[in-house]
Amino acid sequence: MSAELLGEIRENLSKGKANEVQALCQKAVDTGIPVEKILSDGLIAAMAVIGEKFKKNEVYVPEVLIAARAMNSGMGVLKPLLKQAGVEAKGVVCIGTVKGDLHDIGKNLVGMMLEGAGYEIIDLGVNVDAAKFVEAVKEKSPDIVAMSALLTTTMGAMKATIEAIKESGLNVKTMVGGAPLTESFANDIGADGYAPDAASAVEVADGMVA
């Protein structure tokens, strides 16, 4: 019964059926399936498949956003129970689009993929300056700071943010991504990681918190 239910959760999530995912997660809880199992074998497993398909261009941004919305509806059921059960997030990620840049689709997509993989996400929004990133690290003690930029003119703000974090003596990993970026640019500015797309961001984050 439990394997069947978890399979239904995965199937409905991959189709982006938010109401069904929410109802099935509740049903799984009511039938006594451990909440961490519903999370790992239901929601996270389904998002991992979506991530792989996204990497291979088998699905596109709209499908990922719809699947992520369905995942969030399931998380609404599970989150309070995960806290009660003492299930820790895989890690905490502060994410934001850097100063001067107002684009948020890529950032939101990465945030959703990371949340779908079991991370706690603190979304700082767009046009985030170095000081705000530093302040967030001091307040929230994340494992990773993830920065996004879509404009070549705002890429320099990533370097300024990484330098500000280092100057503050804060011990946190940094990850960058966005359409105009390259791995060599990420290395040049001293970032700990670079993700060319949202699905890769999960692998990069996993490598950092391992």
What is the CATH architecture annotation of the largest domain?
3-Layer(aba) Sandwich
Class by SSE composition: alpha/beta
Radius of gyration: 17 Å
How many individual domains?
Answer: 2
Record field, number of beta strands: 5
Task: Work out the helicity level.
Answer: 55-70%
What number is the mean pLDDT? 95
And the CATH topology of the largest domain?
Rossmann fold
Number of helices: 9
Q: What is the makeup of the main sheet?
A: 5 strands, parallel
Order of helices and strands: HHHHEHEHEHEHEH
Going across the biggest sheet, name each strand in turn. 2-1-3-4-5
Determine the CATH superfamily of the largest domain: Cobalamin-binding domain
Give me some keywords for this one:
5 strands; single chain; Rossmann fold; Methyltransferase, Methionine Synthase (B12-binding Domains), Chain A, domain 1; 2 domains; 210 residues; alpha/beta; 9 helices
Topology, please?
Elements: H1 2-14, H2 18-30, H3 35-55, H4 61-84, E1 92-98, H5 105-116, E2 120-128, H6 130-140, E3 144-148, H7 156-167, E4 173-177, H8 183-188, E5 193-195, H9 198-209
Parallel strand pairs: 1-2, 1-3, 3-4, 4-5
